[in-house]
Amino acid sequence: MVSKPDPNPRGIKTLDKDLGRISLMEQALLFTSRPLIAPGIALAFLAIVGIAALALTVAQPGAFIVVIAAVIGGYMALNIGANDVANNMGPSVGAKAITLGGALVVAAICETAGALLAGGDVVNTVSRGIIAPESVAAPRVFIWAMMAALLAGALWINLATWVGAPVSTTHSIVGGVMGAGIAAAGFAAVNWPMMGRIAASWVISPVLGGLIAALFLAIIHNRIIYRQDKIAAARVWVPVLIGVMGGVFACYMALKGLSRLISFPLLDSLLIGLAVGVPLTLVMRPVIRRQSEGMENRNKSLKALFAIPLVLSAGLLSFAHGANDVANAVGPLAAIVHAVQEGGASEQVVIPVWVMIIGALGLSIGLILFGPKLIHIVGSEITRLNAMRAYCVALSAAVVVIIASWLGLPVSSTHIAIGGVFGVGFFREWYHERILRENRSMDALPVEERTRRKVVRRVHIMTILAAWVITVPAAATLSAVLFLIFIALGGAA
Prior knowledge:
Blueprint: H1 9-57, H2 63-83, H3 86-94, H4 100-118, E1 122-124, H5 139-163, H6 169-185, H7 192-225, H8 230-257, H9 266-292, H10 299-342, E2 348-350, H11 353-381, H12 387-407, H13 413-438, H14 447-452, H15 458-490
Antiparallel strand pairs: 1-2
């Protein structure tokens, strides 16, 4: 059968070319528009926050100021979610105990639950005694000071997230309050002893986190990894380590995660931890024995035994973070709402439910939209993590908070977690170099090869340390400038 000639071959070719061009244009449009999706959703969230705040306060005096403060508070919550939550989920994702998508879901649920269920309804408005309340007693001065502090803290955290530096959101808002207070009332208004303790925490937090994480990793190396029969050693020690983790986190939650619902003294918290840890160890012995049956005698098998406790610890850290750090976003906002409605500042105010909801949703949305970048840096780019190393990081974070509560030291959860990551990395470097020296092969290696064997990436050390050191002064300077601008535009009372 003879096929009929194409009646319009030239037209078909033209159509194919046009369709090809359209397809390429669609792909290019998708590629260029993808980076705009997350900012677009964030702007939509802030618009909804502004509309909701206006609807709730339209009949009250100062509604316009409350709406502006609500939008800035939502912006702060987005940035806290983007930057801070990576410290809890990064090690688990880097260890491949949970996927990035799973980590985002777990963290969003736990952060929201912590903020709404245990976030508390009363906060200290002048940020933990940084500024004397009487120095900013004039309502309008106080409102603009809190507004400047909130916006300065949010802008600084946004910049830190953009450059890939996990910073302390608490230090950011403290710096903001300090800068606005200095601009409003001079240097005498600042509680300098408290600022000195905060500065000391820049060193205390990461050093303690690193040392304790390295200590736990040394125990795991000595008792499990470098034993001839790894599986038999794991059956003895993994239940103990899980029991220790369960006890430590029970104590941690009693001290920090649930402190807004019910307050436990340190001794009672330790007893709660003991009551959880010992039974958990006994329960996990047969579980680990069954789980380890048929496993090969290698490190990869050991990693599977730590995966579930690691994910649970990340969820608990996220819950405690939502309960405690949501105040960094909604505390100044609640203070502004109180000052507008009551006509004056107060050392403590009740947080309205709608304000707490803004903080909780902002944390989760910021985490989902912008958190993956910092999660990847914390979990993979500083040093390589597996489940056992990530376990040490998570456990050190809880232990250091307990020790700090006992000693009365102000520490940063961000600094502790990052210090823990550095700690396990430097311990691995030290251990490998010790083995090489024992084999008398370290000195024979060329400098380039010795440098290549460094498992902690030095470029991140300088970036992160620099961001930590300048967080308070940078946020303070920015806040002071914003306060003076606000006063010039709005006028002081």
